[in-house]
Amino acid sequence: MSELIFHHYPPSPFSEKVRIGFGIKKLSWRSVEIPRVPPKPELMPLTGGYRRTPVMQIGADIYCDTQCILRELQRRFPEPTFYPGGADGLPWAVNRWTDIVFDAAAGVILGAAADQLPEAFARDRGRLYFGPDYDFERIKAQLPHNAAQVRAQLGWIDQRLATGRKFMLGDAPGLPDAAAYYLVWFVRGRWQPGAEMLAEFPALEAWEKRVAAIGHGKPTDMNAADALEVARAADPNTPEHADPRDPQGIKPGMNVGVVADVDGGEEPVKGAVRFVDRESIALMHNNDRVGTVCIHFPRVGYRVTPA
Prior knowledge:
The chain is an alpha/beta fold.
């Protein structure tokens, strides 16, 4: 099997979720550092223009969004499982919930730092997270409300762990730990009052140390040009697959666009459907720099529109 190539940058909170996933599964992977804001000329040829972080590459198959990446890791490397204790299904609901909590956490952290953010970063993240009419003065005014939302939901995690569990599902770490940990990592590392808020939750703080100790598996650096060459030299391995129950009637061979289902100012990635099922969709896409790649997206949280 081709190497796992992970396109990310160290301060990326969503990347931290996957990095912990690599650690849980004790995987070796290649680390390609990408810019924090577009343009991303050494990434977008692989992704058909998708600009979010992180992205995982396996040969000429490209996986976008942490949901899609983590699901593929579980499929390829079933043990150690992301679902310890037979928790199949539930971890994905937890993962979706923590991504929703992230929106409130982003309001706290960007609101608190609004006056110190680099202009390009503020403009990019403001549009991406808060829509076309974003206003940092309004975001700052909402900071106490958002902090209250985050605090209450961190309390739910603490309640779960206060029962004596080492990890969210019991004695072994799983997907819910990676999904919850990246929120805590984000709040502690990016918001000055974050440590004070977290100190209210002793079970959570003890768990936080256990998850951090899992580590990130075994990364080795790789430059972006080499990653592009890996894609160019490979053929996608995704089989053609149809879903006869698909509510949208999406079928292999159809030309569609896929974009995150928020008004983040992003353009859809376009291509011909190769694979579609209840959980994911994959598009064939051609680019002069990498040839033909197959780009994978989750269905939940993404909008698919016939082109």
